[in-house]
Design a protein that fits this description.
Number of helices: 9
Order of helices and strands: HHHHHHHHH
Distance between the termini: 38 Å
Number of strands: 0
Shape: elongated
Structural class: mainly alpha
Helix content: over 70%
Largest sheet: none
Strand content: under 5%
Oligomer: single chain
Length: 208
């Protein structure tokens, strides 16, 4: 929450520079923008959570006589609960912003899309964690590559857009995607996450 809040204020200040009325001048603007960054950061954290927890905590908990099935199920449920909390907080902030501004909130209609992205990244993180657990350093190498690619794309895009990358993303969210039905995509992403969870439960049983 803290990182998302600071990022939102920073981006709003950047967008407001040179304007007669700063973009950060109203609470409702902040309430519309912050959840977007909260979800972006939260989705990436969901990926890291799945990848790192299997690497760091699985062996420790198993050594404490916790069953492999229980550890794996706990990690999966923690990911799901984390995503649920992120989405709930974001929905609450967008709802509060809508009440303050009196305008319809397009972002609430995009919540299923954000949920699909979060569950998709969580599934990727779980696969990376299981690969490391079963096949060693391949998971770490894959995670480093993914993080490097993600960081490179964001950095290059931000530089190429002269700092307007995130403002452009917000424009697309507000004007181009709002009102579409993303529930089928959410259902498909949740199904993939569930399938990965089953794969993790099966794979973890054979870990020495």
């Amino acid at each position: 929450l803290g990182i998302a809040a600071v990022t939102s204020l920073f981006m709003l200040l950047l967008q407001g520079m040179g304007d007669e009325t700063p973009a950060v001048s109203s609470l409702d603007t902040f309430l519309f923008v912050m959840p977007f960054y909260l979800i972006v950061i939260g989705a990436f954290c969901a990926l890291i959570l799945g990848a790192s927890t299997f690497q760091t905590m699985f062996g420790v908990l198993v050594s404490m006589n916790v069953t492999r099935k229980a550890v794996t199920a706990g990690i999966i449920l923690t990911q799901a609960a984390f995503i649920g909390c992120i989405l709930a907080v974001s929905a609450g902030m967008w709802g509060a912003g809508q009440m303050i501004s009196g305008e319809s909130d397009t972002m609430l209609s995009l919540l299923p899309l954000f949920a699909a992205v979060c569950f998709g990244l969580a599934a990727i993180g779980t696969v990376i964690g299981i690969i490391f657990l079963r096949w060693g350093k391949a998971g770490v190498i894959a995670l480093v590559i993914i993080c490097g690619i993600f960081g490179g794309i964001v950095g290059a895009g931000y530089a190429a857009s002269d700092g307007e990358l995130f403002a452009g993303m917000q424009k697309i969210m507000f004007e181009d995607l709002g009102g579409n039905n993303f529930w089928p995509l959410t259902a498909a992403s949740a199904a993939v996450f569930a399938a990965v969870a089953v794969f993790a439960l099966i794979a973890a049983r054979k870990v020495e």
